[in-house]
Design a protein that fits this description.
Blueprint: E1 3-7, E2 13-17, H1 22-30, E3 39-42, H2 48-60, E4 63-65, E5 81-85, E6 93-94, H3 96-101, H4 109-116, E7 118-122, H5 135-143, E8 147-151, E9 154-158, E10 167-169, H6 175-185, E11 191-195, H7 201-212, E12 216-218, E13 224-228, E14 236-239, H8 244-257, E15 260-264, H9 272-280, E16 284-288, E17 291-295, E18 306-307, H10 319-326, E19 332-336, H11 347-352, E20 356-360, E21 363-367, E22 376-378, H12 382-394, E23 398-402, H13 405-410, H14 414-419, E24 424-428
Parallel strand pairs: 2-15, 3-14, 6-7, 10-11, 18-19, 22-23
Antiparallel strand pairs: 1-23, 1-24, 3-5, 4-5, 7-9, 8-9, 11-13, 12-13, 15-17, 16-17, 19-21, 20-21
Bound molecules: uridine-diphosphate-N-acetylglucosamine.
Protein backbone atom coordinates (compact mmCIF):
# COMPACT_ATOMS: atom_id res chain seq x y z
CA UNK A 1 0.00 0.00 0.00
CA UNK A 2 1.33 3.49 -0.84
CA UNK A 3 2.40 5.95 1.81
CA UNK A 4 3.33 9.62 1.75
CA UNK A 5 6.73 10.72 2.94
CA UNK A 6 7.16 14.29 4.17
CA UNK A 7 10.27 16.08 5.38
CA UNK A 8 8.91 19.00 7.32
CA UNK A 9 10.10 22.36 8.49
CA UNK A 10 9.93 24.38 5.26
CA UNK A 11 7.58 27.36 4.95
CA UNK A 12 5.32 26.86 1.93
CA UNK A 13 5.15 29.60 -0.64
CA UNK A 14 3.32 29.78 -3.96
CA UNK A 15 -0.08 29.21 -5.54
CA UNK A 16 -2.47 26.30 -5.11
CA UNK A 17 -5.55 25.94 -7.34
CA UNK A 18 -8.67 24.93 -5.42
CA UNK A 19 -10.84 22.33 -7.14
CA UNK A 20 -14.57 21.71 -7.17
CA UNK A 21 -16.18 20.49 -3.96
CA UNK A 22 -16.36 16.70 -3.63
CA UNK A 23 -19.32 16.94 -1.27
CA UNK A 24 -21.24 19.08 -3.76
CA UNK A 25 -20.29 17.01 -6.80
CA UNK A 26 -21.53 13.70 -5.31
CA UNK A 27 -25.21 14.69 -4.82
CA UNK A 28 -25.11 16.73 -8.06
CA UNK A 29 -24.08 13.58 -9.91
CA UNK A 30 -26.95 11.67 -8.27
CA UNK A 31 -29.34 14.36 -9.55
CA UNK A 32 -28.80 13.00 -13.08
CA UNK A 33 -31.18 10.19 -12.09
CA UNK A 34 -34.03 12.72 -11.96
CA UNK A 35 -34.15 13.33 -15.72
CA UNK A 36 -33.72 11.50 -19.00
CA UNK A 37 -31.82 14.51 -20.37
CA UNK A 38 -28.07 15.06 -20.06
CA UNK A 39 -26.66 16.85 -17.04
CA UNK A 40 -23.31 18.51 -17.62
CA UNK A 41 -21.25 19.29 -14.55
CA UNK A 42 -18.02 21.27 -14.75
CA UNK A 43 -15.31 21.77 -12.13
CA UNK A 44 -15.74 18.16 -10.98
CA UNK A 45 -12.66 17.02 -9.05
CA UNK A 46 -10.86 13.87 -10.14
CA UNK A 47 -11.14 11.76 -6.98
CA UNK A 48 -11.75 8.17 -6.00
CA UNK A 49 -15.14 9.06 -4.45
CA UNK A 50 -16.26 10.66 -7.72
CA UNK A 51 -15.27 7.49 -9.59
CA UNK A 52 -17.19 5.39 -7.05
CA UNK A 53 -20.33 7.48 -7.55
CA UNK A 54 -19.84 7.19 -11.33
CA UNK A 55 -19.67 3.42 -11.02
CA UNK A 56 -22.86 3.31 -8.94
CA UNK A 57 -24.77 5.58 -11.34
CA UNK A 58 -23.53 3.44 -14.23
CA UNK A 59 -25.04 0.38 -12.57
CA UNK A 60 -28.35 2.22 -12.24
CA UNK A 61 -28.45 2.97 -15.98
CA UNK A 62 -26.69 6.31 -16.37
CA UNK A 63 -24.13 6.90 -19.11
CA UNK A 64 -21.17 8.86 -17.85
CA UNK A 65 -18.57 10.57 -19.93
CA UNK A 66 -15.55 12.51 -18.76
CA UNK A 67 -14.31 14.21 -21.91
CA UNK A 68 -10.54 14.44 -22.09
CA UNK A 69 -8.46 17.60 -21.85
CA UNK A 70 -10.16 19.15 -24.91
CA UNK A 71 -13.45 19.05 -23.05
CA UNK A 72 -12.02 21.12 -20.22
CA UNK A 73 -13.22 24.59 -19.59
CA UNK A 74 -9.99 26.16 -20.77
CA UNK A 75 -10.85 29.72 -19.71
CA UNK A 76 -11.15 28.67 -16.07
CA UNK A 77 -8.06 26.55 -15.72
CA UNK A 78 -8.51 22.97 -14.66
CA UNK A 79 -12.27 22.54 -14.73
CA UNK A 80 -12.99 18.99 -15.82
CA UNK A 81 -16.41 18.25 -17.19
CA UNK A 82 -18.59 15.26 -16.45
CA UNK A 83 -21.59 14.46 -18.66
CA UNK A 84 -24.21 12.22 -17.13
CA UNK A 85 -27.37 10.94 -18.75
CA UNK A 86 -29.89 8.49 -17.30
CA UNK A 87 -32.21 7.94 -20.29
CA UNK A 88 -33.73 5.09 -18.36
CA UNK A 89 -33.31 3.71 -14.88
CA UNK A 90 -32.28 0.11 -15.53
CA UNK A 91 -31.69 -0.96 -11.90
CA UNK A 92 -32.69 0.45 -8.52
CA UNK A 93 -30.20 -1.16 -6.19
CA UNK A 94 -27.16 0.43 -4.53
CA UNK A 95 -25.20 -2.66 -3.50
CA UNK A 96 -23.37 -3.23 -0.22
CA UNK A 97 -19.96 -3.23 -1.84
CA UNK A 98 -20.29 0.35 -3.12
CA UNK A 99 -22.16 1.84 -0.14
CA UNK A 100 -19.62 0.28 2.22
CA UNK A 101 -16.85 2.06 0.32
CA UNK A 102 -18.64 5.40 0.22
CA UNK A 103 -21.51 6.32 2.52
CA UNK A 104 -22.52 9.21 0.28
CA UNK A 105 -23.93 6.54 -2.08
CA UNK A 106 -27.15 6.76 -0.04
CA UNK A 107 -28.04 10.01 -1.83
CA UNK A 108 -29.25 7.98 -4.81
CA UNK A 109 -32.23 6.87 -2.70
CA UNK A 110 -34.27 10.09 -3.04
CA UNK A 111 -33.83 10.45 -6.82
CA UNK A 112 -34.45 6.73 -7.47
CA UNK A 113 -37.69 6.83 -5.48
CA UNK A 114 -38.79 10.01 -7.20
CA UNK A 115 -38.14 8.80 -10.74
CA UNK A 116 -38.54 5.01 -10.55
CA UNK A 117 -40.83 4.63 -7.51
CA UNK A 118 -38.44 2.24 -5.79
CA UNK A 119 -34.95 1.99 -4.35
CA UNK A 120 -33.02 -0.77 -2.62
CA UNK A 121 -29.98 0.67 -0.88
CA UNK A 122 -27.57 -1.14 1.41
CA UNK A 123 -27.59 0.16 4.99
CA UNK A 124 -24.25 1.95 5.34
CA UNK A 125 -23.43 0.75 8.86
CA UNK A 126 -20.88 2.46 11.08
CA UNK A 127 -17.72 4.17 9.96
CA UNK A 128 -14.47 5.39 11.43
CA UNK A 129 -15.97 8.58 12.85
CA UNK A 130 -19.11 7.20 14.44
CA UNK A 131 -22.30 5.19 14.02
CA UNK A 132 -23.74 7.60 11.41
CA UNK A 133 -27.30 6.29 11.08
CA UNK A 134 -29.62 7.11 8.16
CA UNK A 135 -32.86 7.09 10.18
CA UNK A 136 -33.55 10.75 9.37
CA UNK A 137 -33.22 10.12 5.62
CA UNK A 138 -35.83 7.38 5.95
CA UNK A 139 -38.24 9.47 8.07
CA UNK A 140 -37.99 12.25 5.49
CA UNK A 141 -38.84 9.92 2.63
CA UNK A 142 -41.71 8.42 4.64
CA UNK A 143 -43.07 11.94 5.12
CA UNK A 144 -43.28 12.08 1.30
CA UNK A 145 -45.30 8.86 1.19
CA UNK A 146 -42.55 6.25 0.74
CA UNK A 147 -43.04 2.84 2.32
CA UNK A 148 -39.82 1.63 3.88
CA UNK A 149 -38.72 -1.76 5.12
CA UNK A 150 -35.33 -2.92 6.36
CA UNK A 151 -34.47 -6.39 5.07
CA UNK A 152 -31.25 -8.35 4.95
CA UNK A 153 -29.07 -5.30 5.53
CA UNK A 154 -30.87 -3.28 2.87
CA UNK A 155 -33.31 -0.38 2.91
CA UNK A 156 -36.22 -1.24 0.64
CA UNK A 157 -38.16 1.88 -0.25
CA UNK A 158 -41.23 2.02 -2.47
CA UNK A 159 -43.62 4.61 -3.74
CA UNK A 160 -45.76 2.59 -6.17
CA UNK A 161 -48.08 5.54 -6.89
CA UNK A 162 -45.38 8.20 -6.78
CA UNK A 163 -44.32 10.45 -3.93
CA UNK A 164 -46.55 13.16 -2.54
CA UNK A 165 -45.46 16.45 -0.99
CA UNK A 166 -45.40 16.63 2.79
CA UNK A 167 -43.76 18.24 5.80
CA UNK A 168 -40.24 17.03 6.53
CA UNK A 169 -39.05 18.16 9.95
CA UNK A 170 -35.46 17.25 10.73
CA UNK A 171 -34.90 17.07 14.53
CA UNK A 172 -31.17 17.31 13.82
CA UNK A 173 -29.38 19.01 10.94
CA UNK A 174 -28.34 16.43 8.35
CA UNK A 175 -26.61 17.26 5.09
CA UNK A 176 -27.22 13.95 3.31
CA UNK A 177 -30.77 13.72 4.71
CA UNK A 178 -31.61 17.19 3.37
CA UNK A 179 -30.17 16.25 -0.06
CA UNK A 180 -32.22 13.06 -0.23
CA UNK A 181 -35.41 14.87 0.86
CA UNK A 182 -34.84 17.69 -1.64
CA UNK A 183 -34.19 15.37 -4.59
CA UNK A 184 -37.25 13.30 -3.69
CA UNK A 185 -39.49 16.36 -3.27
CA UNK A 186 -38.73 18.01 -6.62
CA UNK A 187 -40.68 15.31 -8.49
CA UNK A 188 -43.30 14.64 -5.77
CA UNK A 189 -46.94 15.67 -6.31
CA UNK A 190 -47.69 18.94 -4.52
CA UNK A 191 -45.87 21.01 -1.95
CA UNK A 192 -43.11 19.96 0.41
CA UNK A 193 -41.71 21.98 3.28
CA UNK A 194 -38.33 20.91 4.70
CA UNK A 195 -37.85 22.42 8.15
CA UNK A 196 -34.45 22.60 9.88
CA UNK A 197 -32.82 21.85 6.54
CA UNK A 198 -29.01 21.86 6.41
CA UNK A 199 -27.69 25.19 5.08
CA UNK A 200 -24.30 23.93 3.91
CA UNK A 201 -23.19 25.64 0.65
CA UNK A 202 -23.24 22.22 -1.05
CA UNK A 203 -27.03 22.05 -0.43
CA UNK A 204 -27.51 25.46 -2.00
CA UNK A 205 -25.37 24.39 -4.96
CA UNK A 206 -27.57 21.31 -5.40
CA UNK A 207 -30.75 23.39 -5.12
CA UNK A 208 -29.45 25.85 -7.73
CA UNK A 209 -28.70 23.01 -10.13
CA UNK A 210 -32.14 21.46 -9.52
CA UNK A 211 -33.73 24.87 -10.17
CA UNK A 212 -31.82 25.10 -13.47
CA UNK A 213 -33.27 21.66 -14.30
CA UNK A 214 -36.77 23.08 -13.79
CA UNK A 215 -37.41 22.40 -10.08
CA UNK A 216 -39.36 24.94 -8.04
CA UNK A 217 -37.55 25.58 -4.76
CA UNK A 218 -37.86 28.57 -2.41
CA UNK A 219 -35.71 29.44 0.58
CA UNK A 220 -32.29 28.63 -0.86
CA UNK A 221 -29.57 29.11 1.75
CA UNK A 222 -32.09 29.12 4.63
CA UNK A 223 -33.19 26.33 6.98
CA UNK A 224 -36.67 26.16 5.42
CA UNK A 225 -36.87 24.85 1.89
CA UNK A 226 -40.25 24.99 0.11
CA UNK A 227 -40.57 22.77 -2.93
CA UNK A 228 -43.45 22.65 -5.43
CA UNK A 229 -43.21 19.32 -7.20
CA UNK A 230 -43.08 19.30 -11.02
CA UNK A 231 -43.92 16.46 -13.46
CA UNK A 232 -40.52 16.30 -15.00
CA UNK A 233 -37.09 17.88 -15.02
CA UNK A 234 -34.76 18.57 -17.91
CA UNK A 235 -30.98 18.63 -18.24
CA UNK A 236 -28.73 21.59 -17.56
CA UNK A 237 -25.13 22.72 -17.25
CA UNK A 238 -23.82 23.49 -13.82
CA UNK A 239 -20.46 24.46 -12.40
CA UNK A 240 -19.62 22.82 -9.06
CA UNK A 241 -18.72 25.35 -6.36
CA UNK A 242 -15.15 25.41 -4.99
CA UNK A 243 -14.19 23.02 -2.22
CA UNK A 244 -14.30 24.95 1.07
CA UNK A 245 -12.61 22.12 2.98
CA UNK A 246 -9.75 21.86 0.50
CA UNK A 247 -9.44 25.66 0.82
CA UNK A 248 -9.35 25.51 4.61
CA UNK A 249 -6.86 22.65 4.56
CA UNK A 250 -4.34 24.53 2.41
CA UNK A 251 -4.92 27.68 4.44
CA UNK A 252 -3.92 25.61 7.48
CA UNK A 253 -0.85 24.39 5.55
CA UNK A 254 0.28 27.99 5.02
CA UNK A 255 -0.36 28.75 8.68
CA UNK A 256 1.35 25.69 10.19
CA UNK A 257 4.52 26.14 8.11
CA UNK A 258 4.72 29.92 8.63
CA UNK A 259 4.37 30.29 4.87
CA UNK A 260 2.49 32.29 2.30
CA UNK A 261 0.00 30.69 -0.11
CA UNK A 262 -2.38 32.05 -2.72
CA UNK A 263 -5.41 29.79 -3.12
CA UNK A 264 -6.91 30.47 -6.53
CA UNK A 265 -10.57 29.75 -7.16
CA UNK A 266 -11.28 29.77 -3.40
CA UNK A 267 -14.31 31.64 -2.04
CA UNK A 268 -13.95 33.38 1.32
CA UNK A 269 -17.73 33.57 1.84
CA UNK A 270 -17.88 29.76 2.08
CA UNK A 271 -15.45 29.51 5.02
CA UNK A 272 -15.99 32.62 7.10
CA UNK A 273 -15.90 30.64 10.36
CA UNK A 274 -12.53 29.10 9.44
CA UNK A 275 -11.06 32.42 8.29
CA UNK A 276 -12.20 34.07 11.53
CA UNK A 277 -10.49 31.36 13.56
CA UNK A 278 -7.25 31.61 11.57
CA UNK A 279 -7.22 35.38 11.99
CA UNK A 280 -7.72 35.08 15.74
CA UNK A 281 -4.79 32.66 15.74
CA UNK A 282 -2.57 35.31 14.12
CA UNK A 283 -2.80 34.23 10.48
CA UNK A 284 -3.32 36.85 7.77
CA UNK A 285 -6.11 35.97 5.35
CA UNK A 286 -7.10 38.38 2.62
CA UNK A 287 -9.29 38.14 -0.46
CA UNK A 288 -7.28 38.62 -3.60
CA UNK A 289 -8.55 38.59 -7.17
CA UNK A 290 -9.86 35.12 -7.87
CA UNK A 291 -9.07 33.66 -4.46
CA UNK A 292 -7.47 34.05 -1.08
CA UNK A 293 -4.02 34.87 0.20
CA UNK A 294 -3.01 33.22 3.46
CA UNK A 295 0.22 34.02 5.24
CA UNK A 296 1.91 33.80 8.59
CA UNK A 297 5.31 35.13 7.83
CA UNK A 298 6.62 36.78 10.96
CA UNK A 299 4.30 36.09 13.79
CA UNK A 300 3.56 33.32 16.26
CA UNK A 301 0.44 31.21 16.17
CA UNK A 302 -1.92 31.67 19.14
CA UNK A 303 -4.11 28.94 20.60
CA UNK A 304 -7.80 29.55 19.81
CA UNK A 305 -10.84 27.55 20.94
CA UNK A 306 -13.30 26.12 18.43
CA UNK A 307 -16.48 24.09 18.40
CA UNK A 308 -17.87 22.29 15.37
CA UNK A 309 -21.41 23.16 14.33
CA UNK A 310 -23.63 22.88 11.26
CA UNK A 311 -23.02 25.58 8.63
CA UNK A 312 -22.42 28.52 8.99
CA UNK A 313 -20.63 27.30 12.13
CA UNK A 314 -17.14 25.85 12.20
CA UNK A 315 -17.14 22.69 10.02
CA UNK A 316 -16.43 19.27 11.50
CA UNK A 317 -14.51 18.50 8.30
CA UNK A 318 -11.89 21.13 9.38
CA UNK A 319 -11.62 20.01 13.01
CA UNK A 320 -8.65 17.64 12.57
CA UNK A 321 -6.69 20.13 10.46
CA UNK A 322 -7.20 22.95 12.98
CA UNK A 323 -6.17 20.58 15.76
CA UNK A 324 -2.90 19.88 13.92
CA UNK A 325 -2.38 23.64 13.66
CA UNK A 326 -3.07 24.21 17.36
CA UNK A 327 -0.45 21.61 18.36
CA UNK A 328 2.26 24.16 17.51
CA UNK A 329 0.48 27.32 18.70
CA UNK A 330 1.43 29.37 21.75
CA UNK A 331 -0.92 28.55 24.62
CA UNK A 332 -3.84 26.17 24.76
CA UNK A 333 -6.86 25.56 22.54
CA UNK A 334 -10.05 23.71 23.42
CA UNK A 335 -11.60 21.93 20.45
CA UNK A 336 -15.13 20.61 20.87
CA UNK A 337 -16.70 18.19 18.39
CA UNK A 338 -20.51 18.29 18.42
CA UNK A 339 -21.37 16.63 15.07
CA UNK A 340 -19.77 13.18 15.24
CA UNK A 341 -19.22 11.20 18.44
CA UNK A 342 -15.92 9.59 17.52
CA UNK A 343 -13.96 12.11 15.54
CA UNK A 344 -10.74 12.33 17.55
CA UNK A 345 -9.01 9.34 15.97
CA UNK A 346 -6.12 11.59 14.87
CA UNK A 347 -5.29 12.54 18.48
CA UNK A 348 -3.11 9.52 19.38
CA UNK A 349 -1.24 9.86 16.07
CA UNK A 350 -0.59 13.59 16.60
CA UNK A 351 0.63 12.73 20.11
CA UNK A 352 3.08 10.24 18.60
CA UNK A 353 4.53 13.22 16.75
CA UNK A 354 5.05 15.05 20.03
CA UNK A 355 1.72 16.90 20.37
CA UNK A 356 0.23 17.49 23.83
CA UNK A 357 -3.50 16.71 23.59
CA UNK A 358 -5.95 15.47 26.20
CA UNK A 359 -9.43 14.36 25.26
CA UNK A 360 -12.28 14.85 27.74
CA UNK A 361 -15.49 13.51 26.22
CA UNK A 362 -16.42 15.70 23.26
CA UNK A 363 -13.59 18.17 23.88
CA UNK A 364 -9.86 18.05 23.40
CA UNK A 365 -7.39 20.35 25.13
CA UNK A 366 -4.43 21.04 22.90
CA UNK A 367 -1.40 22.59 24.58
CA UNK A 368 1.00 24.01 22.05
CA UNK A 369 4.49 22.51 21.89
CA UNK A 370 7.53 24.16 20.35
CA UNK A 371 8.09 21.53 17.68
CA UNK A 372 6.60 18.30 16.38
CA UNK A 373 8.83 15.46 15.33
CA UNK A 374 8.33 13.25 12.29
CA UNK A 375 7.03 9.70 12.81
CA UNK A 376 5.27 6.92 10.91
CA UNK A 377 1.53 7.56 11.36
CA UNK A 378 -1.81 6.51 9.92
CA UNK A 379 -5.39 7.57 10.16
CA UNK A 380 -8.80 6.07 9.67
CA UNK A 381 -10.54 8.77 7.67
CA UNK A 382 -9.94 11.45 5.11
CA UNK A 383 -9.69 14.59 7.25
CA UNK A 384 -7.72 12.84 9.99
CA UNK A 385 -5.23 11.69 7.35
CA UNK A 386 -4.75 15.19 5.99
CA UNK A 387 -4.27 16.55 9.50
CA UNK A 388 -1.26 14.22 9.77
CA UNK A 389 0.09 15.57 6.47
CA UNK A 390 -0.19 19.09 7.91
CA UNK A 391 1.58 18.03 11.08
CA UNK A 392 4.28 16.40 8.94
CA UNK A 393 4.82 19.65 7.03
CA UNK A 394 5.70 21.38 10.29
CA UNK A 395 7.59 18.52 11.97
CA UNK A 396 11.31 18.00 12.19
CA UNK A 397 12.51 14.95 10.27
CA UNK A 398 10.52 12.48 8.23
CA UNK A 399 6.82 11.71 8.62
CA UNK A 400 5.34 8.71 6.82
CA UNK A 401 1.57 8.87 6.42
CA UNK A 402 0.20 5.42 5.71
CA UNK A 403 -3.21 4.46 4.27
CA UNK A 404 -2.97 7.06 1.52
CA UNK A 405 -6.19 5.81 -0.05
CA UNK A 406 -8.12 8.00 2.39
CA UNK A 407 -6.39 11.08 0.95
CA UNK A 408 -7.13 9.98 -2.62
CA UNK A 409 -10.84 9.96 -1.79
CA UNK A 410 -10.89 13.69 -1.18
CA UNK A 411 -7.71 15.56 -2.17
CA UNK A 412 -6.85 15.87 -5.84
CA UNK A 413 -3.09 15.80 -6.59
CA UNK A 414 -2.26 16.59 -2.95
CA UNK A 415 1.48 15.91 -3.13
CA UNK A 416 1.81 17.75 -6.44
CA UNK A 417 0.04 20.86 -5.14
CA UNK A 418 2.13 20.96 -1.95
CA UNK A 419 5.43 20.12 -3.68
CA UNK A 420 4.88 22.99 -6.14
CA UNK A 421 4.95 25.33 -3.12
CA UNK A 422 8.19 23.97 -1.72
CA UNK A 423 7.09 21.02 0.40
CA UNK A 424 9.36 18.00 0.46
CA UNK A 425 6.66 15.43 -0.07
CA UNK A 426 6.49 12.29 -2.18
CA UNK A 427 4.34 9.22 -2.61
CA UNK A 428 6.18 6.04 -1.85
CA UNK A 429 4.88 2.88 -3.50
CA UNK A 430 5.22 -0.14 -1.25
CA UNK A 431 6.42 -3.33 -2.80
C1 LIG B 1 -21.84 15.23 5.24
C2 LIG B 1 -20.47 15.32 4.60
C3 LIG B 1 -19.38 15.09 5.64
C4 LIG B 1 -19.55 16.06 6.81
C5 LIG B 1 -20.98 15.98 7.36
C6 LIG B 1 -21.26 17.03 8.43
C7 LIG B 1 -20.89 14.56 2.34
C8 LIG B 1 -20.66 13.52 1.31
N1 LIG B 1 -20.38 14.33 3.56
O1 LIG B 1 -21.98 13.90 5.75
O2 LIG B 1 -18.12 15.28 5.01
O3 LIG B 1 -18.65 15.71 7.83
O4 LIG B 1 -21.93 16.20 6.30
O5 LIG B 1 -21.02 18.30 7.94
O6 LIG B 1 -21.44 15.61 2.06
N2 LIG B 1 -27.47 11.69 11.52
C9 LIG B 1 -28.43 10.91 12.14
N3 LIG B 1 -29.37 10.32 11.36
C10 LIG B 1 -29.40 10.47 10.00
C11 LIG B 1 -28.41 11.27 9.38
C12 LIG B 1 -27.46 11.87 10.18
O7 LIG B 1 -28.44 10.76 13.37
O8 LIG B 1 -30.27 9.90 9.34
C13 LIG B 1 -26.43 12.33 12.36
C14 LIG B 1 -25.00 11.86 12.01
O9 LIG B 1 -24.67 10.64 12.66
C15 LIG B 1 -24.17 13.02 12.48
C16 LIG B 1 -25.08 14.23 12.17
O10 LIG B 1 -26.40 13.72 12.04
O11 LIG B 1 -23.97 12.95 13.87
C17 LIG B 1 -24.72 14.99 10.90
O12 LIG B 1 -24.59 14.07 9.84
P1 LIG B 1 -24.90 14.47 8.32
O13 LIG B 1 -25.01 15.96 8.21
O14 LIG B 1 -26.04 13.65 7.84
O15 LIG B 1 -23.56 13.99 7.60
P2 LIG B 1 -23.42 13.36 6.17
O16 LIG B 1 -24.45 13.90 5.25
O17 LIG B 1 -23.29 11.88 6.30
Amino acid sequence: MDSISIRGGRPLSGTIPIGGAKNAALPLMAACLLTEDPLELSNVPDLVDIATMGKLLGELGAEIERPDAEGHDAGRGNAPVLRLQARQITATEAPYDLVRRMRASVVVMGPLLARAGRARVSLPGGCAIGTRPVDLHLKALEALGAEIELKEGYIEARAPNGLTGGHVLFPKVTVGGTENALMAAVLARGETVITNAAREPEITDLAQCLAAMGAKIDGLGTDTLKVSGVDQLSGCRHRVLPDRIETGTYAAAAAITGGDLTLTGARADLIESVIGLLQRAGVEVTEQGDGLKVSRANCDLRGVDSMTEPYPGFPTDMQAQIMALMTVAKGAAMITETIFENRFMHVPELCRMGADINVHGRSAIVRGVGKLSGAPVMATDLRASVSLVLAGLAAEGETRVNRVYHLDRGYERLEEKLAACGAQIARVAEA
